[in-house]
């Protein structure tokens, strides 16, 4: 009788039936064994897989290939950069923890933005008040100096940024010039010097031109031009004229 057509014995039939019944358990045991041999990172990644095909492919992959899959997933995974600079990946901490951290980070960022804005507003308010003080000073102490109160306030602002010894010279010059103009003399009293030849006026004109060319404020421009050769020369003339008038 042909072996292929041979009727299975009762023992063979029982063995086959048992194998068929045990097959699912055997497969499950193999899966559990494969998962048990994985590292913690591999287990976490395996658990995140959604399809049976993906899980089977990952189980059968070598340790090196598994690591490549994990790294590739992390690169495309959603990440969060904390204010401290730390990088948090959703795949590492899980969806719920990641969402909480993301919300907290957003809240902290908003608070920081509000704080920065408040500080900037406070700074602007202080600068505005300080500038208004200089305007009041210019109107009260130097009413005869040519220019608007705002322009004279910018001059005072620029002088305030100079070294103290230079500040004193400039303030004395403005005072003498204001007194001379108030008395009906030309700029700087009895020197016969008209406004165009006034070194202080020249210095201010240089600063104004420099500010327009560079797109900077008068305060910064004044400090820059006074450090040039021409600016130093004019400053010396101013110092000399102050001593002469005094």
Compact summary:
It is built from 11 helices and 2 strands; from the N terminus they run ααααββααααααα.
Q: Give the DSSP E fraction (strand runs of 2 or more residues).
A: under 5%
Number of helices: 11
Order of helices and strands: HHHHEEHHHHHHH
Number of strands: 2
Low-pLDDT stretches are 184-194
Shape: rod-shaped
| Rg from alpha-carbon coordinates | 42 Å
Structural class call reads: mainly alpha
Share in helix: over 70%
N/C terminus separation: 140 Å
Strand order within the widest sheet? 1-2
Mean pLDDT: 80
The largest sheet, given as strand count, sense and whether it forms a barrel, is: 2 strands, antiparallel
Describe this entry's structure for a reader:
This protein has 246 residues and is an all-alpha fold. It contains eleven helices and two strands; from the N terminus they run ααααββααααααα. It has helices spanning 10-36, 40-48, 52-60, 63-76, 90-93, 95-141, 149-160, 164-182, 199-214, 218-225, 229-245; strands spanning 79-81, 87-89. The protein has a two-stranded antiparallel sheet with strand order 1-2. Helix 9 packs antiparallel against helix 11 (229-245). The chain is rod-shaped.
């Amino acid at each position: 009788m042909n072996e292929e057509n041979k009727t299975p014995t009762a023992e063979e039939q029982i063995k086959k039936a048992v194998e068929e019944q045990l097959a699912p358990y055997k497969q499950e045991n193999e899966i559990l064994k494969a998962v048990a041999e994985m590292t913690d990172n591999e287990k976490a990644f395996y658990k995140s897989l959604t399809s049976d095909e993906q899980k089977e492919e990952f189980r059968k992959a070598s340790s090196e290939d598994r690591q490549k899959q994990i790294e590739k997933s992390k690169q495309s995974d959603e990440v969060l950069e904390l204010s401290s600079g730390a990088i948090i990946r959703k795949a590492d901490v899980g969806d719920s923890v990641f969402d909480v951290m993301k919300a907290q980070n957003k809240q902290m960022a908003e608070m920081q933005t509000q704080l920065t804005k408040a500080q900037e507003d406070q700074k602007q308010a202080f600068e505005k008040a300080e500038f208004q003080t200089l305007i009041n000073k210019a109107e009260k102490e130097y009413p005869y100096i040519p220019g608007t109160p705002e322009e004279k306030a910018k001059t005072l602002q620029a002088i305030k940024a100079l070294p103290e010894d230079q500040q004193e010279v400039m303030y004395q010059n403005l005072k003498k010039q204001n007194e001379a103009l108030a008395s009906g003399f030309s700029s700087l009293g009895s020197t016969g010097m008209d406004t165009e030849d006034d070194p202080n006026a020249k210095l201010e004109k240089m600063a104004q031109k420099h500010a327009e060319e560079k797109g900077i404020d008068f305060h910064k421009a004044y400090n820059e031009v006074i450090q040039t050769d021409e600016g130093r020369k004019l400053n010396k003339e101013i110092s000399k004229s102050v001593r002469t008038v005094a």
